[in-house]
Amino acid sequence: MEKGELITHCKYYKGETKSPYNDLLKKVFWKCERVYVESASSSNYFHNMYKKEVEEYIQKHKDENSSLTSEETSIEAKAIRIFIKDMFKNWRPKEAEELLCQY
């Protein structure tokens, strides 16, 4: 997927070279989105892997009401959210869910 199209699905990253945020958590969200966009725009495999993870998540949680199961949220935005969740699980495993709720 093209970089410009992916950026439209980001909440914080808009293509800047440096984060415009002072808030630490917003900086982390911006950085995660930037890494996702850079990786997904240069590798279809990377993007498709996260899209597949979204589809699997939806199947497992189809009875839940969340941004990851909502039909109103694009699959690209869901993939970015799952990527951020994966990053938080690596950085702050005990707080990952709580931090993601602030996204």
Main attributes of the structure:
103 residues, mainly alpha, 5 helices, globular
Structural description of this entry:
There is one protein chain. The protein has one domain. Helices cover 61% and strands 0% of the residues. It has helices spanning 3-7, 24-42, 44-60, 75-91, 96-100. The longest helix has 19 residues, at 24-42. It is globular and about 40 Å long. The model has no long low-confidence stretch (mean pLDDT 90).
Categorize the overall geometry. globular
Number of domain modules? 1
Major beta sheet summary: none
Q: Level of helix content?
A: 55-70%
**Strand coverage percent:** under 5%
Number of strands: 0
Give the distance, in angstroms, between the N- and C-terminal Cα atoms: 23 Å
Summed up, the helix count is: 5
What class, by secondary structure content? mainly alpha
Low-confidence stretches: none
> Helix and strand succession?
HHHHH
Radius of gyration: 13 Å
In short:
By secondary structure, the chain is mostly helical. Helices cover 61% and strands 0% of the residues.
Produce the secondary structure layout.
Elements: H1 3-7, H2 24-42, H3 44-60, H4 75-91, H5 96-100
